[in-house]
């Protein structure tokens, strides 16, 4: 069975990110897509800011902590990802970037989709994330989900997406799943 991790992109206490990630998981399961989906919350990993002696850290296990090893094992066990990113100052959050930088080969040759949100749909953040993911040898699918803080959130705090997004999210989920399955053959 293909395993898809839905990676949260924020560690802030006041975040809405986890709501979006859980909605994506629930939506995928209701569509009957032939894959296992799990939310991977970067806030729960115990990793600190990336400030390591040897990047990527997992290239040299002698520097690894239990948190590093757990993060490595979690990402290594997944076949593909859907990154749920907020837009902070036209970019991804530092927490998400740090979590990406902790690893190297665990990301390679896997599929990735992007779901963004913000006052301008998170478009700038998704573009920045595409570049980072491509450098980690992830195959990024299109289209991407893009939600508005003004139209898809009640009081900018409760996620209530408009139905107009369903077709895009369907395509995203199917593409990530099929690409993730295909890329298993080269890992």
TrEMBL record:
GO molecular function: oxidoreductase activity
Annotated transmembrane regions: none
Pfam family, one: FMN_red
Domain of life according to the entry: Bacteria
Family matches, as InterPro entries: Flavoprotein-like_sf (IPR029039), FMN_Rdtase-like_dom (IPR005025), NAD(P)H-dep_reductase (IPR050712)
SUPFAM superfamilies: Flavoproteins
UniProtKB keywords: Flavoprotein, FMN, Oxidoreductase
Domain NADPH-dependent FMN reductase-like as annotated: residue spans: 2-148
The protein's assembly and partners: Homotetramer.
UniProt record similarity statement: Belongs to the azoreductase type 2 family.
Protein name: FMN-dependent NADPH-azoreductase
Organism: Corticicoccus populi
